[in-house]
Amino acid sequence: MTVILGLTGSIATGKSTVSQLFKDFGFPVVDADLGARAVVEKGTAGLREIKTYFGDEIIHSDGSLNRQKLGKIVFEDGEKRKQLNELLKPYIRKWIMDETQKQVAKGVSLVVLDIPLLYEAEYDKVVDKVMVVAVSPAIQLERLQKRNQLSKEEALLRIHSQKSIVEKEQLADIVIDNNGSKESTKQQVEKWLGQMGFLSIKG
Length: 203
Prior knowledge:
Blueprint lengths: L2 E6 L6 H10 L4 E3 H7 L6 H10 L12 H10 L1 H28 L4 E5 L14 E6 L2 H12 L3 H8 L5 H7 L2 E4 L4 H15 L7
Parallel strand pairs: 1-3, 1-4, 2-3, 4-5
Helix pairs in contact: 1-9, 2-5, 4-5, 6-7
């Protein structure tokens, strides 16, 4: 039987690092960010939906999505961000579930669903366990500012657009402490995989 693990965190807590670790250990990862991109490619129903709502200004001259312009709009307006998520939610969910079933059909022991807004979009109801990658609020702010070249105010705006990392930690089945080195994070993931018996039965 395949175990489906939901992997999440908050912006700049290091979820992508942990996602890559699972890939390195040989486990399939279904990446919601890839799904979010796939459902708004040129010619998709998803792109048509957001063009209708946000207007032609978020479309490049070649017909593709202007992600930078759309990103600026939704990070500055909570209602528009909520509407974007609502518009794309059914398309992304279908993509994620389709990709997950492809892996389950292969008979793998573990499939990891890498989903930034896992709790916000209620994917915790369709996975067997949830792993949250966490750092302290101070480190989260510092890493986000450095990574995205943002002011403190801009970074806090993005952080507060999601459920807080503290809330997610409280809801999680497994918490990975990513305040330290990558090696420390890897050891925590490897320990969990070992405890669950996945390292000896990789699909």
